[in-house]
Amino acid sequence: MNRKHDGRNTNTQERILAVAENLYLAGGYEHINLQSIAHALEISKPALFYHFKSKRELFFVMLIRMLESLQQALEEAVDQDQFSTQEKLERLMEAIQRQPAFDVTRFAQEEMHLLTPSEQQEVMQAAELSLFAPVERVFREGIERGTLRTHDTRLACLLFLNICVPLSHERSPLQLQVQTGKRREMLEMFLYGLASAPRPL
């Protein structure tokens, strides 16, 4: 999934991608301004285009880079077998909160069309590997361990991510709540529900 630009300075590429990512997180694709990136790095626009042929290519490589970083963080969070299912889910929630926010819904609705069909497919595959696969694996392990009842792991994954992903947005009111120690309480609500008695048959 890593894209190499043969013969080009990798350090400069990484610096360009880091600035582009900060701009993207601040305001989406439209906020990525090539002149601003060049100015911030004290390079010329031709030098920037030496590394990335277009804003679209920069956007694509930046997204893949973000998702690869997210995948690594989530896999590291649940890599140890000694953690219980609940502990792994709590570690996933914490890891997602620490990572830059990739809004899959916004991308699909507002930004996907900016990429070529092959790039769209690669980004969605990267999102599957980085977001969905690590979480769904924990739910499957929970079923195998007997700590979770048999359920639709894909649906559970989607529900869990709908709770977690907003936490990675700096302006989210949920993030403030979680910073005050509510993460475990939120997870227990997700796992055990709010009913005071078992659901009637």
From TrEMBL:
It comes from the Bacteria. Residues 33-52 bind DNA. InterPro entries: Homeodomain-like_sf (IPR009057), HTH-type_TetR-like_transc_reg (IPR050109), HTH_TetR (IPR001647), Tet_transcr_reg_TetR-rel_C_sf (IPR036271). Gene3D superfamilies: Homeodomain-like, Tetracycline Repressor, domain 2. Transmembrane segments: none annotated. SUPFAM superfamilies: Homeodomain-like, Tetracyclin repressor-like, C-terminal domain. Pfam families: TetR_N (PF00440). Keywords: DNA-binding, Repressor, Transcription, Transcription regulation. GO terms for molecular function: DNA-binding transcription factor activity; transcription cis-regulatory region binding. Residues 10-70 form the HTH tetR-type domain. This is HTH tetR-type domain-containing protein. It comes from Dictyobacter alpinus. The lineage of its organism: Bacteria, Bacillati, Chloroflexota, Ktedonobacteria, Ktedonobacterales.
